[in-house]
Specification:
The chain has about 110 residues and is mainly alpha-helical. Helix content is about 50%, strand content about 5%. The chain has a two-stranded antiparallel ribbon with strand order 1-2. Helix 1 packs antiparallel against helix 2 and helix 3 packs across helix 6.
Amino acid sequence: MAFAGLNDADVKAALDGCAAADSFDYKSFFKACGLASKSSDDVKKAFATIDQDNSGFIEEEELKLFLQNFSPSARALTDKETKTFLAAGDSDGDGKIGVDEFAALVKA
């Protein structure tokens, strides 16, 4: 099943590229899966899927399960990866990632 209009093979390759613990790099992942080249509407759709509780933000717990939005069998991010990802995306320092912050992170 395509996620936010992404190619399944690209998503699988992106997931395979970060299968080992502490190997997740958001820039590489967004580029490999094709999200970095998608429209802002597609990026917003991806955000809405990752924002599991529909709070308008991606919190740390949702970020930890980030990869599982792309494939249910994907691993959870490690605490270190989650904190690094959150720090990279949380430009206003509120401890969560809003839709504009997520879009900036995807396009980084």
